[in-house]
Design goal:
The chain has 75 residues and is an alpha+beta fold. It contains 2 helices and 3 strands. The protein has a single domain, classed as TATA-Binding Protein (2-Layer Sandwich), CATH 3.30.310. It has a 3-stranded antiparallel beta sheet with strand order 1-3-2.
Length: 75
């Protein structure tokens, strides 16, 4: 049986930034889930890979891209 590694990223905040981050996740090949409730917007991205190092690389790429968007949004 092959190993499966999963990392779930969950972020909550501003709706415009959540939508930008969701679009970024799609560009990187992920299928994000974006929900809204009275507390705000929540973005969930599940990253799955059979190789732990590949998972780490994919998660790192996603976090770097989202961090850049957050900096632009706050700037």
């Amino acid at each position: 049986m092959a190993e499966i590694h999963t990392m779930t990223l969950r972020w909550s905040g501003d709706g415009a930034l959540a939508e930008a981050m969701a679009a970024c996740a799609v560009e990187l090949g992920h299928a994000p889930s974006l929900t809204q409730d009275e507390a705000g917007h929540t973005l969930t991205v599940e990253v799955v890979d059979t190789d732990l190092q590949a998972l780490r690389d994919r998660v790192d790429d996603l976090l770097v891209a989202m961090s850049a968007l957050e900096e632009q949004h706050e700037g």
